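Researcher: I'd like a candidate sequence for this fold, 263 residues long. If you have to choose between options at a position, lean toward the conservative one.
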């Protein structure tokens, strides 16, 4: 494993520029990598919309709708996991390597990515608890509520990126424990938070806004399908940026995940 860099060895602005620059350089590959999972999610969400619309006013709570939602959950999460695997492999191995999409099946690598991703999400949720408590203490102040929401998001995203250092290793069939990821991230945690604030947080806020608009239109009138497509596109952009950030931080803090000594 590579040595954790000394204090100051992770420049916030320089790293953020490198992450965004690397992401933009690979952006032309995003449609290819996202094609299959995007179509899967579009069909799933479109099917659920049709089922809800055809069920009358209580269609959403009908047994058929509930079964469809439960059946869709594993399909949706595997679609996201498969995309993250393919994008990380593209970043780490190059677009000419096999296993960078599009593809029509999932495998053990995707299952490992999903399991690791769920664990990372749980840890990120736990890390956001102080922000949630701050929001509860904010009372009815709109400004305090916004500040608490931003703190909550920043805590969650920083934890997700810190523990998510295991994900690039998973994508290239290497093994890295959560403890090793945390040990590498902890000395530069504030710097990681700064990098997240400059890169991932603005995109996440954009995705959240689009998602809220989509949810509102589902319960009323409006151009639901275009907003659904926009939300899906933004989600894949955010996930690709996250993958680019994780790959860059892994290489800086732990070494190249494609090499055995970095695992």
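Model: Candidate sequence:
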């Amino acid at each position: 494993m590579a040595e954790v860099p000394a204090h100051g060895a992770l420049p916030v602005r320089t790293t953020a520029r490198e992450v965004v620059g690397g992401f933009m350089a690979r952006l032309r590959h995003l449609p290819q990598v996202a094609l299959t999972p995007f179509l899967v999610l579009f069909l799933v969400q479109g099917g659920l919309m049709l089922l809800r619309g055809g069920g009358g006013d209580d269609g959403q709570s009908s047994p058929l709708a509930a079964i469809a939602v439960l059946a869709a959950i594993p399909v949706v999460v595997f679609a996201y996991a498969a995309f993250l695997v393919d994008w990380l492999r593209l970043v780490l191995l190059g677009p000419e390597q096999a296993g960078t999409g599009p593809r029509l099946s999932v495998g053990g690598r995707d299952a490992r990515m999903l399991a690791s991703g769920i664990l990372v999400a749980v840890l990120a949720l736990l890390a956001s608890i102080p922000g949630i408590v701050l929001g509860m203490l904010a009372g009815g102040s709109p400004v305090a509520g916004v500040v608490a929401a931003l703190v909550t998001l920043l805590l969650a995203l920083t934890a997700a990126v810190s523990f998510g250092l295991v994900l690039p290793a998973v994508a290239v069939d290497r093994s890295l424990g959560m403890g090793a990821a945390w040990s590498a991230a902890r000395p530069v945690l504030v710097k990681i938070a700064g990098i997240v604030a400059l890169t991932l947080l603005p995109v996440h806020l954009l995705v959240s806004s689009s998602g809220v608009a989509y949810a509102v239109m589902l319960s009323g009138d409006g151009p639901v399908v275009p907003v659904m497509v926009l939300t899906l596109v933004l989600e894949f952009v955010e996930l690709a940026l996250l993958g680019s950030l994780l790959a860059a931080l892994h290489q800086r803090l732990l070494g190249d995940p494609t090499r055995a000594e970095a695992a």
